[in-house]
Amino acid sequence: MKIVYAAGCISEASYARLYGGSGTAPAFQAQKYNRLFAEGLAEHTQVDVVSYPSAEEAILGSGVISLPDETAGKVRYHYIPTYRSVLRRWLHYFLGSFSRCMKLLDGDSVVMIDCWNQMAGLGAFLASKIKGCRCVGIITDLPEFLGDGATEALSKYLIRHCTDYVVLTELMNNRMNKKGKPYVVLEGHADITMASREPSLAKKSKKRICMYAGSIHRIYGVERLVEGFRQAAIPNAELHIYGTGDYQQELEEIAARDPSIFYGGLLLPSQVVEKEMEATLLVNPRPSDEEFVKYSFPSKTMEYMSTGTPVLTTALPCLPEEYLPHLYFFREETPQGMAEALRQVLSLTDEELFQKGCQARQFVLRERNNVVQAAKVLQMLEGKGKS
What we know:
Blueprint: E1 2-6, H1 12-19, H2 28-42, E2 46-51, E3 64-65, E4 70-72, E5 75-79, E6 82-83, H3 86-104, E7 109-114, H4 118-131, E8 134-139, H5 143-146, H6 149-161, E9 164-167, H7 170-176, E10 183-185, E11 208-213, H8 222-232, E12 237-242, H9 248-257, E13 261-263, H10 269-278, E14 281-284, H11 299-306, E15 311-313, E16 328-329, H12 335-345, H13 350-367, H14 370-381
Parallel strand pairs: 1-2, 1-7, 2-5, 7-8, 8-9, 9-10, 11-12, 11-14, 12-13, 14-15, 15-16
Antiparallel strand pairs: 3-6, 4-5
Helix pairs in contact: 2-14, 3-4, 4-6, 8-12
């Protein structure tokens, strides 16, 4: 079996070269998710990624980003150019994906598409139909949460016509897989290469650092986290936040006045992991009562746990039961409730916190690494998965 994977990701080295000095890190969550997935699959079978670099004004001075095809580890990347003109960009994503997939596909191939990369996904899907190959749709969120109009309609079209699915939760499958096609639930995947990076108390910051990395939109609870941390007033502790979003300007103003709050802007994924390993506690304040959390799984949970730094999170309905012993939880999702949870967790010794983090790391790297998770997809394709 050969996998042709159409999605918006490029090799880690190319991503760092393109965006490392630009002050931007576009689509970094999708980039990391798809790259890890492709790398996990490549440990079992041949994988060709058909992709493109995300468009950013900061690096589109010439009007086009064109990368040469490359091999990174066991994954072969076939790149489509990205243009400044949106219409030209979409046309090339569709045609480039179609033509490359047509060349790569044979009778033993399976196409996998990220259903939110609509134009590249459409080209790959069309090639799979012509070549008579199965087309696996990766659904990481509901279409209505990520677009409207033609964008939403195209995502729904791709989802309806896929032959198999990878979903993050059973609720997502129940909602999107109305015809009961084969599927597998993968809430995410931890980077297996993190196993070589041993956590150490000696590497921790002397100050007790609570850290959040990700989208800093108010809808994700970041404002309440900041308010709660300030209310907690924990000696020798700071809250460090990395990312961008609609809360950024207010956060910058708060950080300028309050030395216990630090805003570090946007970092590359590899830089974020370094900061996470140095922190005392990683936090995720995502509200548990929002509709979207039933269907998605925050990728930062896997990344957080793999670092060996303990995690304090809201009790999200998407969390499988086996995760619960390895996490700390906010019992109330108000600023006051977050303040109380922060005080309780940070009353523990450094050794107790470190032990909790290491247990979570062992669990996620043993049972949810990207190689193990990828194998579940191949089992489904061989007729051994859910259907």
